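Researcher: Go.
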Amino acid sequence: MAKQRTLVLVKPDGVRRGLIGEVISRFEKKGLKLRALKMLWLSEEKAREFYSVHRDKPFYNDLVNFITSGPIVAMVLEGDEAISVVRLMIGSTDGRKAQPGTIRGDFALSIQDNVVHASDSVESFEREFKVVFSEDDIVPDYEKCL
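Model: Structure:
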């Protein structure tokens, strides 16, 4: 199996609702390793860069406005096939249609207020990571130090 890294954001609605610990806990219980973590408030410029792949879509400005409406928590998770594992765990984008047991299925209120974002490919991770983190933010494999 291929060890991968993926980016997950707890979006402003998840932060406001106090779901940060719940989200992180689910990933840790699955066996994914937290390699970087920070809380921040994305600037409009960074948000536009983050969502640049959607620039020509009608919902682009709504994405930017929502992600900049409050603080977010960003994390890098690592594990076998982390991207696909995390995508399964978070559920479909529209929280009203996400399966129960997924993060969005259990907590999301709509397609916009859907608690989390997760990279959908290696290419997305590489682009998104650079907006929020730098390589210096990644904690090495600390389990080997214990």
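Model: DSSP finds seven helices and four strands in the chain.
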